[in-house]
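User: For my dataset I need records formatted as: sequence, then structure tokens, nothing else. Please produce one.
Assistant:
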Amino acid sequence: MNKSENLFSTILASSAHDMKNSLGMLLNALNSILDALPEEHLKKSQSNIGIIQYESSRVSSSLMQLLSIYKIENNQLAFNPGYHNLYDFVEEQVLIHMPLIEARGFSCEIEIDESIEAVFDESLISMVISNVIGNAIRYAHSKIKITAEIGEYANITIYDNGPGYPAQMIEMAGDYIQGINNSTGSTGLGLFFAQKVAALHVHGEKSGSVSLQNGGPLGGGIFEIAIP
């Protein structure tokens, strides 16, 4: 990377950080306003409130992903793997999205043995899983299912009953940054970030990966992250 490219990356990262802080202040102010509203007003606006909170969180998540990618590329990201219970971890991500799940009348099933554990960076993997759940809520019709299994890898899989991933996106396996689509507004950022995070998880000669498919028990999109 030449000097001008490095300067641009630094400015972009700094701007993303400032925007994330400003958005956080806006969300805190919104929550304070909501806390002060009468219960009957909240019920009438539950759907719109859920959308505002979801979209705000999605922007915040995108900014955090940009900052994390910048740190990964510049070897500045703190990587802190540890043992985590997979059921508890996934349930926590689902609960974050529960207001919108309920507002949209969705069902979200967790099918994970409550005793299994895996080693991973909780902060990074939570951003990945939370982003995929958010996208599933956005595109699915009514159902989401999350499973996890332990073998050579810890595999976390998210199914939905939406239209599935576009064929060209599935074909991009391992090169998701090419998913930029000006007509749809898709940047491929979430998948590119997931790919980067998965690759940070290494055990011996094995490294983590992500994959996309269609079909499965709900007939829609299937996202899987494999952690060695």
